[in-house]
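Researcher: Go.
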Amino acid sequence: MKENRKLPLKKSTRAFYREGKEIKGYSFFDFLHGYIYGRWPYLYIGVGTGEHPLAKVLRPLFNAFTYIFGGAQQPDGEVTFADTYHGKVVPTQAANQLVNVKEDIKLEDLEPLIPYAKARDIILKNPDHIVVLDCPCRNSRQDPCLPMDVCLIIGEPFASFILDHQPRRSRSISSQEAVQILKEEHQRGHVHHAFFKDAMLERFYAICNCCECCCGAMQAQRNGTRMLTSSGYIAVINDGLCSACGTCVELCQFGALHLAGESARISDADCMGCGVCVGHCPEGAIELVLHPEKGEPLIIQELIKEVRETTPG
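Model: Structure:
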């Protein structure tokens, strides 16, 4: 990116632009894409889900913009839309760790955790700067799940950008408040996703708390666009404890559970390892176990520990 003159933009936008300049291959059009996404997220998501009144008019333009400047939908199949914008399922304990990082960190090229061609870094600057934003996906639905303020924007320059451009729909919160939001969303049966986007400086920027009825990424997943990847765990049922009450079946956001005789059964292929069923089983009959074929879990404290152990001095 080349900056020919000082841009007449908000301080947070200039910070976003400056940081983009430091990324190899991050173009002005990537910055423009990220700016549009952060500046008008409700329009962006509403058009993407097809729920916005202008979706029929704007969606072809949206798709063309993403195709030309976002690197998506390439004919050779090497880079898809999901490679540029995707979420990693994180159980509540792992999500809590992400909002409790107390130092700047730089973790790059995390392909075993984030199995996409692009946007797979975790680079946190001022990670204690957390902003909660009204969910654009819920906002786009006619009868959304509540509450609205459940999307967590983590670190800079993202937190300040959202505060500047969405002052009526966002507010700064503490790590403790973020943990409480995660807890309450888990109690509602919603799934935590750590989101990554190429236009958002090619890295992690938010934790969204998602439900199958509102979430645009889960909608895309059902329609064949693999925007979400497993936590790296899978749920396992203890038949001896299961009472076949059906609670887990009702709450599973991925349709991975069903009742069969006197016990619940899990579809390994459909289970994303979110842990919602584990936390709500009244008999304590379900647990999460590591499943190598599902990838590696995103446990930020372990990743930080590995970096410290391998860094000289």
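Model: The chain is about 35% helix and 20% strand.
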